[in-house]
């Protein structure tokens, strides 16, 4: 199929007018009549691309789609402009080079279109199309960077990295993307409000020169959270100096008024007690061991609890063994037991869900033993006990199936039903039990040599899946018994009576 004639090509062939299709002698009259009806200039629909650029159509569609995606234009495809005279190849190539030097996207697109009409080689067109892609990618990077849109910038940077745009622009965009990602992480940390993570995100944002206003907001939130934690800690310790400092910090950080008022109330009480102690000149003994135990219990942190318990036990052992050391010191048995019970509770709460998920029999048994020794009862413990019973019952069921013991298998099957073992396992165990019973009945019938009982036992054995070798032995015995005249004679009276 030939390309349609343009105005230039038509003027070289038929000076009298313009044709919309390849000229043939039989159509001259019809074309001349059509030329009087069709106004000029006309719209030309191009046919196949030149043979020198077989892959140009794919580059053209990719360019159009990428240009629409990068620039965000909803309606990109437009109608072809009125037909223009093709430029000479040298002039078209010069226009493209000029547009490349000027780095003008629209000018380069127009120049490439002119180069296509001029019939330049496909290799050059592909190269220029690639340069146009790079310009669009660079423009998309700059637009996303100006808009400070993380998603757009990340996508644009990935595309620009593949195409290989200007290094300075790409590095600047990567730095901007790094800053925007850091700010996004900082916002997430602010929502989660975890003190340690928030402090790390603030330090990272400061080092990468993030948004100063966002950093100030994060610092204000961090100060507020820190002041609130310090306030609650001071309320637990009930120390006057710590309470006073924590109340001031909480007020400056704009902590909620309710805990601040409660702390002030506690502070007044502790001040009154301090005055009473000063008046009576009583110096209350300071038990550091007990304080450490109390602090660890309030924090509910396993490591601190274990260290406090170890120190308290060592102190109590010294008090019991050395009378000279026991002066002014007391035992901490109740606090130690409370701390150990809390440790057990924390360990059970942490380890039991993992053991339940992994269905590890040994871990389940160890955690449940610890929970039982400390009288810990909750939903997880109940679920763990149920799961452990089910696992043990399944193991017992498997052993009974392996041993092929009717008594053990029946007992294990009954326990499995009560423990709620999966129906599939129960069906397999029931089938195994039926097979064992059928095999035993078959053996008993073979020993009794009763043909009717043997036939019935053979049928049951086949239904239960007894090995074919045992069934074959019984069938052979039936044939032998059927041939024996004594057996036949012994069966006749019974049939007559029946």
List its salient traits.
5 domains, 77% helix, mainly alpha, 22 helices, disordered C terminus, 498 residues
What's the oligomerization state? single chain
Topology, number of strands: 0
Strand content: under 5%
Instruction: Compute the number of structural domains.
Output: 5
Helix content: over 70%
Brief sketch in words of this structure:
The chain is mainly alpha-helical and 498 residues long. The chain has 22 helices and no strands.
Describe this structure in words.
The chain is mostly helical. It folds into 5 domains: 1-46, no CATH class; 56-165, no CATH class; 188-280, no CATH class; 288-377, no CATH class; 415-487. The protein is 77% helix and 0% strand. It has 22 helices and no strands. It has helices at 7-13, 28-37, 56-71, 89-102, 105-118, 122-147, 150-163, 167-192, 195-207, 212-237, 240-252, 257-280, 288-299, 302-321, 333-358, 361-373, 379-403, 406-419, 423-448, 451-464, 468-483, 485-497. α7 packs antiparallel against α8. The longest helix has 26 residues, at 122-147. The chain is flat, with a radius of gyration of 46 Å. The relative contact order is 0.03. Mean pLDDT is 70; it is low at 1-30, 33-81 and 487-498. Residues 483-498 have a biased composition (Polar residues). Residues 1-24, 477-498 are annotated as: Disordered.
